[in-house]
Amino acid sequence: MENALSFASSPLPPRSPRPFHPRFPDKLRLLMLNRSNSVHGNRTIFARNAFGSDENGSLNGFSSMPNNIFMEEVIGAEYGEGFETFRPEGPLKVDVDFLNDRMQEGFLQRIRYAMKPDEAYGLIFSWDNVVANTRALKLDAWEKLASEEGKEIPRDDSVQRVLHYAGADHVLRKVLLWGVAEPDLDRLKLRLSELYYHNLVELSEPMEGLKEWLDAIATSRIPCAVVSSLDRKNMVEALERMGLKKFFQAIVSEEDGMESIAHRFLSAAVKLDRKPSKCVVFEDDPRGVTAAHNCTMMAVALIGAHPAYDLGQADLTVASFHELSVINLRRLFAHIGSTFMDLQKQVIEKAPSKRKLHIDTIF
After folding, report:
1. Pick the residue with more confidence: 18 or 254?
2. What is the distance in angstroms between the CA of the first residue and the CA of the last residue of the chain?
3. H or E segment and range at residue 125
4. What is the CA radius of gyration of the chain?
5. Range 18-28 average pLDDT
């Protein structure tokens, strides 16, 4: 995949940017603004690379703001629906069946995968509690916020589990019962994100056993992606501090604009150039496992934030990365064959034609 695509603009006289219609969504307005600035200012348009950012980690010079860290995420793809992308001829709806059908291996790829079957897989890692121990970071941010506000965080396990996965609005109003007024709600949410990002800057160690597992995967030349609602700049910097950036060929972050967990998985599959049905997702949350299955992907669950009995729907459940080997990936697909979840046409067998009985009579 090319790192950047550039299109030289034609020598036309500069034009003032058109006013935005009020019914245009914010993302479309930002897209039009980026295009206008890049065409008339720099005379060049730069497309995102596999990491979706430039060398500074920003998107076309726009820095990202923390928005989705403490929000409850939608699972997505309950009926196989995907996301919408844009092409010169118009919008294109990309869903699970579309990707499994269009991303078929070519002739040379099939020969290569027959000799090296491990390379046919794609591995997708969730950022939270799979790549990094963000559970401790979020809990520490909540405790610091409570200390600043003169409150206390209950030590109950069920309450602390809600702090990691529920939205900040729900936690402040329904769980902690702080009685926050509407004007103070945005202030507390912004302060909570700031505390989390301050903790993130100090993060330098990945989850136990992850680096060794990624080393084994790299030896087998299996492409990997990491997905998160975190902004790309902070995510890349954290990966560099942990020494993991070299292992990931693709990153899906807040700038990609995915609206659900499943959509991020599908976006990662596209960036890895692998069919969703050939991808394996590493998650610690039952919701992420469900999203992976909605995308026809396999799911490996890590026991930690959730007990093993909550992760029973995963295809494989492990306590740490030390328990994994490349052979485990092969066994995930072994009992269902190489054509699992591939689109198949129903063949209706025709009934054999009736034979006519000929009687030869000799007189």
Report:
1. 254
2. 82
3. strand 122-126
4. 25
5. 41
CA dist., res. 299 & res. 282, Å (int): 6
Q: What share of the chain is helix, strand, coil (3-state, %, to 5)?
A: 45, 10, 45
Q: Which two tokens stand for residue 2?
A: 């090319």
Band of residue 57 on the pLDDT scale cut at 50, 70, 90 = very low
Quickly count: other Cβ atoms within 10 Å of residue 358's Cβ: 5
The tokens of 115 are what? 């000799």
The predicted-structure confidence for 62-84, as pLDDT tens digits, reads as follows: 344 445 666 667 888 777 677 67
> In this structure, are residues 38 and 60 in contact, taking their beta carbons and an 8 Å threshold?
yes
**pLDDT higher than 60, residue 28:** no
Let me know if 32 is exposed, middle or buried by CB neighbors in 10 A (0-12, 13-18, 19+): middle
Please give the Cα distance from 287 to 293 (Å, whole number): 10
- How many residues would you count in the chain? 363
Which residues, including other chains, have CB under 8 Å from residue 68's CB and lie 6 or more apart?
229, 254
Which of 53-62, 193-202, 317-326 shows the lowest mean pLDDT across its residues?
Answer: 53-62
Best CA proximity match to 138, nearest among 158, 160, 113: 160
Q: Which two tokens stand for residue 130?
A: 């799979």
> Is 118 exposed, middle or buried (CB count within 10 Å of its CB: 0-12, 13-18, 19+)?
middle
Q: Mapping DSSP to helix (H, G, I), strand (E, B) and coil, where does residue 124 land?
A: strand
Count of C-beta atoms within a 10 Å radius of residue 178: 16
Per-residue tokens: 4: 């950047």
* Contacts of residue 197, Cβ cutoff 8 Å, sequence gap at least 6: 66, 234
Q: Which residue has the tokens 């006013």?
A: 19
- The answer to whether 289 and 261 are in contact (CB under 8 A) is no
| Residue 132 DSSP symbol | B
Task: Tell me the C-alpha to C-alpha distance, in Å, between residue 194 and each of 29, 199, 332.
Answer: 27, 9, 40
Q: In what order do the strands lie in the sheet containing 250-252?
A: 250-252, 224-227, 122-126, 279-283, 298-302, 316-318
Contact of 27 with 59, CB cutoff 8 Å: no
Burial class of 221 by CB neighbour count within 10 A (0 to 12, 13 to 18, 19+):
exposed
